[in-house]
Amino acid sequence: MNTPHLSVVVPVFNEQDNVAPLVAEIVAALRGRAADDGGDFEIVYIDDHSRDGTFAALQRLKASVPELRVLRHATQSGQSTAIRNGVKAARGAWIATLDGDGQNDPADIPKLLAQRAQSPADVKLFAGWRVDRQDSGSKRWASKWANAIRSRMLRDDTPDTGCGIKLFERAAFLDLPYFDHMHRYLPALMQRAGWRTVSVPVHHRHRTAGVSKYNNLDRALVGIRDLRGVAWLIRRSRVTAVEEVEPTPGPGLQR
């Protein structure tokens, strides 16, 4: 396979029934398109040491999906670590991420690519914005509450940081500070690094198989600690432009 322009990174944990349908949707959304529109792509799945048949399902799919690559954690390590390891292994200059539960729609990836094509070069992250959430009322309320607090503390001008579908430059991502749960703060971290971010409305779907791996209380407790840490990182950051100095012509220098 040629070096892909785009790598679709999907972290999964115990999603055996969602693997095949989601891979098929990614292929349908991207295969056959022009290279700049995602047509030259790979799919990188990272199995976070699932305890069900997720890894076996991925192994079977490799025989029929040449774009598919499969990585597996030796121990369960969490979503942020899975995303980072997937990005490190990816060969594309740009990364699209999707949650492995099937609630993100791969058909939105070309929409993010189109937004990138008409944006300035300093926009390094295009974040999905679930304008019509298909979750339970309690989860929607918790997300709204968390987004309001995060926006007030970090001022990242992002209505929905929890959406799993994103498009970002690989090099810019790998230059960010890494910590557990960092995937929830990518807009703020990208802005801290001096880049711009854009939110793009995307679809959101009901989960049709498997169960959610999170509960609202766990997210709230972790989120409070993380918010304080990210706010500290932002306060302590400094972005400075760097210019290389060319030699000045003199008696001993000729151009």
TrEMBL record:
Residues 7-173 form the Glycosyltransferase 2-like domain. It is an enzyme of class 2 (transferase). One of its GO terms (molecular function) is glycosyltransferase activity. Pfam families: Glycos_transf_2. InterPro entries: Glyco_trans_2-like, Glycosyltransferase_2, Nucleotide-diphossugar_trans. Its EC number is 2.4.-.-. Gene3D superfamilies: Spore Coat Polysaccharide Biosynthesis Protein SpsA, Chain A. Keywords: Cell membrane, Glycosyltransferase, Lipopolysaccharide biosynthesis, Membrane, Transferase, Transmembrane, Transmembrane helix. The keyword Membrane applies. This is Glycosyltransferase family 2 protein. It comes from Luteimonas notoginsengisoli.
